[in-house]
C-alpha cells in the first residue's frame, strides 16, 4: 500500500512540473511574439504603460559638456547604448517597409548590419529604405550595411554572442560585411559619404573622375 501511494505521489509531482514548464514556455512565446532574440537581454529602450499603450508624453533631456577642462564624457554616452534593443527596434521598423518580410540586425560598437528577406522588384530602392531606417535609429557616426541575401543570417547569428573585445570578432565582421556589400546598398548618404556612411576616398574619387 505504501509503495502504491509513493508511485502516485511521484507521478503527481512529475505532472505538476511538466505543467509549470509548459506554462513558462507559453509565457516566453507570448513575450517574444514575432521577435527572435539570440541573447536574453530584454531591457527596454522605450517605455510603455502597464496596459500596453504607448506613452504620449514628449521626451526632453538636457546634457552639458563636463565642467572639467579636457575631460571627455562623450565615450560614456555610447557605452550605455543597449545594442540588442537598438537591433530589435531597427528590425521592427524595417519589417514595416514595403516588400520586406523578415529582418535580422546586428549592432556592434560602430556598425549596423541588416539582413532582410524581400520580394521587391527594385532592389536598390528597398536597400536604400532599409539602410536609411537603420541610420535613423543609431548615432550618425555609425556605418550601416544591408543585404537582401538572407542566407547570411546564420553567419550573422554566430556573432551575436560576441563583443568588441572578443578574439577575431573584427575579422569575422569584416568578412560578413564583404559578403553583404555584394548586394545593393542604396544611394550615397551625401556628396562626401558613400552608401554606407563612410567618407569617400579622395584618390578613388580622382580615379573615377579621370575614367569619366
Structure notes:
The protein is mostly helical. The protein has a domain at 83-192: Alpha-Beta Plaits (2-Layer Sandwich). It has helices at 2-32, 74-79, 83-95, 123-135, 153-158, 169-180, 202-211; strands at 100-107, 111-118, 143-147. Helix 4 (123-135) links the parallel strand 2 (111-118) and strand 3 (143-147). Helix 3 runs antiparallel to helix 4 (123-135). Residues 23-32 and 202-212 have low confidence and may be disordered.
List keywords for this structure.
single chain, mainly alpha, Alpha-Beta Plaits, 3-stranded mixed sheet, globular, disordered C terminus, Sporulation protein
What's the quick description here?
With 212 residues, this protein is mainly alpha-helical. It is built from 7 helices and 3 strands.
**SSE string, helix = H, strand = E?**
HHHEEHEHHH
- Any idea what the radius of gyration is? 23 Å
Q: State the major sheet.
A: 3 strands, mixed
Q: Would you identify the CATH architecture of the domain at 83-192?
A: 2-Layer Sandwich
Instruction: Return the CATH topology of the domain at 83-192.
Output: Alpha-Beta Plaits
Number-wise, the strands total: 3
Structural class category: mainly alpha
Biased composition (Polar residues): 201-212
Pfam families: Spore_YhcN_YlaJ
InterPro entries: Spore_lipoprot_YhcN/YlaJ-like
Region (Disordered): 182-212
Amino acid at each position: 500500500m505504501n509503495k502504491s501511494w509513493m508511485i502516485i505521489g511521484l507521478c503527481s509531482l512529475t505532472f505538476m512540473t511538466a505543467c509549470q514548464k509548459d506554462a513558462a514556455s507559453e509565457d516566453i512565446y507570448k513575450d517574444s511574439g514575432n521577435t527572435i532574440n539570440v541573447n536574453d537581454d530584454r531591457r527596454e529602450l522605450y517605455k510603455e504603460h502597464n496596459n500596453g499603450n504607448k506613452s504620449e508624453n514628449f521626451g526632453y533631456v538636457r546634457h552639458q559638456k563636463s565642467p572639467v577642462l579636457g575631460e571627455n564624457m562623450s565615450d560614456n554616452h555610447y557605452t550605455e547604448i543597449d545594442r540588442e534593443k537598438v537591433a530589435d527596434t531597427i528590425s521592427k521598423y524595417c519589417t514595416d517597409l514595403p516588400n520586406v518580410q523578415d529582418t535580422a540586425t546586428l549592432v556592434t560598437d560602430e556598425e549596423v548590419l541588416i539582413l532582410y528577406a524581400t520580394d521587391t522588384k527594385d532592389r536598390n530602392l528597398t536597400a536604400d529604405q532599409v539602410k536609411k531606417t537603420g541610420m535613423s535609429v543609431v548615432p550618425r557616426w555609425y556605418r550601416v550595411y544591408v543585404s537582401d541575401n538572407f542566407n547570411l543570417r546564420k553567419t550573422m547569428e554566430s556573432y551575436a554572442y560576441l563583443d568588441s573585445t572578443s578574439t577575431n570578432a573584427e575579422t569575422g565582421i569584416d568578412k560578413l560585411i564583404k559578403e553583404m556589400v555584394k548586394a545593393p546598398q542604396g544611394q550615397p548618404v551625401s556628396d562626401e559619404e558613400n552608401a554606407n556612411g563612410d567618407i569617400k576616398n579622395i584618390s578613388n574619387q580622382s580615379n573615377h573622375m579621370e575614367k569619366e
